[in-house]
Specification:
InterPro entries: Rieske_2Fe-2S, Rieske_2Fe-2S_sf. This protein has 105 residues and is an all-beta fold. The chain is 0% helix and 46% strand. It has a 4-stranded antiparallel β-sheet, with no helix packed on it. Strands 1-10-9 form a 3-stranded antiparallel β-sheet, with no helix packed on it. Strands 2-3-4 form a 3-stranded antiparallel β-sheet, with no helix packed on it.
């Protein structure tokens, strides 16, 4: 397991969104309503990038087919074609003035 620094806390704000590629992980850090989330950055349905997705309430909406996922836990809430798995969510690690994640090798 290894710690990866993602962002300084002072750079975060509501509406913040940034994609990270760490080894074989594609991650997206976002802040919404003061809460920070780290989720996989591509839709599990057809791997469309979620960096262009809309946030509606507490859901992330994939712009390709309208799939909706809960931001907090990645739960699939709505699908327009076949169902897919939930979004992967990663626990954030706070270290002093920065935010990061611990990932396995």
């Amino acid at each position: 397991m290894r710690y990866y620094s993602l962002e300084k806390l002072m750079n975060l704000f509501d509406g913040y969104r940034k994609v990270f590629k760490i080894d074989n992980h594609q991650l997206m850090l976002l802040q919404q309503d003061g809460q920070r989330y780290l989720i996989e950055s591509n839709c599990p349905h057809r791997a469309f990038p979620l960096s262009a997705s809309d946030v509606v309430g507490d859901e992330l909406v994939c712009p390709q087919h309208g799939y909706r996922f809960a931001i907090a836990d990645g739960q699939l809430r709505h699908y327009s074609e076949e169902p897919c798995r939930n979004l992967r969510c990663y626990p954030l690690v706070y270290q002093q003035n920065e935010l990061g994640v611990v990932l396995g090798e």
